[in-house]
Amino acid sequence: METMHIPADQAGILKAAEALKTGLLVGVPTETVYGLAADALNPQAVRAIFQAKGRPADNPLIVHVLNKAQAEGLAVITPLAEMLMDAFWPGPLTLVVPRQKIVPDVVTAGLDTVALRAPSHPAMRKLLLESGLAIAAPSANRSGAPSPTTAEHVMNDLNGLIPLVLDGGPCEVGLESTVADAAGSIPVVLRPGAVTPEMIAAVAGECLVAQSAMRPLHEGEAAPSPGLRHRHYAPKAPLTLVKGPQDKVAARIRALYGAEERACVLVMEGRLSAYQGLKAFSLGQDMNQAAHRLFTLLRQADGAGCSRILAEALPEEGLGLALMNRLARAADFDIQIV
Ligand code: AMP
Ligand code: MG
User: N or C: which end of the chain has fewer CB within 10 A?
Assistant: First the structure.
């Protein structure tokens, strides 16, 4: 199959809407990462997403909607979910709520809940409007690889496997949405993202973070979110995170670097000076830039043939929590404390 890579302009969006309506897959830009879109109510089209990504069938998908009104046709909107939708939609917050029967089992991996999000990206909103569909869309990468934040990343992973990619430029946020369970009366963050637990608590009064969001599951432990069971976001090179006081972290990273043929270092801009003479990638000046760059840099490290990636741990506050969640999983929890 030849993959068309076209701009996300009006003509491109109309073409994508037609493709979705006939059950085809489309790579689409969102404000978080690129999505691999299909008609959420067409089980055959949704099955094709799992196939193209090589995604385990037990990992449910996020369904994208225009707004609360469309969400009401798919799920039970709890008072908590409604409050959070009013505060954060459209935007990078996915809410897990009880599903209605209309949502196919293949979308929810058989769960009785569904994950819903109203994206803010103008091209994705136009696509939702033009197609009139609810759009199931996980990240448009091969399962396990770093998420795609440009159309080129999507092409690198899925060229030849899907018919169409809409190019809307680099994603604004660069990390996947926050996933929060809003089925009960207290929100629980299952996957941290740009909408932080602090922001959710400011609206809902409180907000819990699932413990398993930040550590590996124990043997036999039930996953509150099925995605937590799987390795994610990983570059080909092994990634090691080092945590502790800055001087000790730098010393450990230098030692690990020296033992490798072609290591590279991944740190914030302000920390580059501690790694002079080493191959180092900058995550930027602040957490927003780091989120925007992380997945691109992981792909670049692979492209540069790095044999091992050594990264400084980041403070787990605000957006730092989401960054550390992705880094820890990309590292398969290889975290050295010094
Ligand atoms: P992705 O689509 O690749 O961004 O991943 C979607 C994330 O949402 C995965 O971590 C899923 O496990 C999670 N998710 C989707 N649906 C549900 C659900 N019904 N309950 C809990 N987590 C969910
Ligand atoms: Mg994903």
Answer: N
- Total domains in the fold of the chain: 2
If we measure between CA atoms, which residue out of 158, 119, 134 comes closest to residue 26?
Answer: 158
Q: Which domain holds residue 311?
A: 239-337
CA of 58 to the centre of ligand 2 (A): 13
The CA 247 to ligand 2 mean position distance, Å, reads 34
Ligand nearest to the CA of 142: 2
* This model's pTM is above 0.90: yes
First-to-last C-alpha distance (Å) of the chain: 50
Please give the average per-residue pLDDT across 223-251, as a whole number.
88
Q: Which atom of ligand 1 is nearest the CA belonging to 177?
A: 4
Task: Check: CB of residue 226 under 8 Å from CB of residue 59.
Answer: yes
Per-residue pLDDT reduced to its tens digit, 320-334: 999 999 999 999 999
Tens of pLDDT, residue by residue over 156-200, are: 999 999 999 999 999 999 999 999 999 999 999 999 999 999 999
27 plus 159 within the same structural domain: yes
Between residues 334 and 221, the one the model is more confident about: 334
pLDDT score for 229 = 67
Encode burial over 162-175: b for 16+ CB neighbours within 10 A, e otherwise.
bbbbbbbeebbbbb
Note whether 183 and 260 are same-domain residues. no
CB atoms within 10 A of CB 280: 18
What are φ and ψ of residue 203, in 5° steps? -95, -45
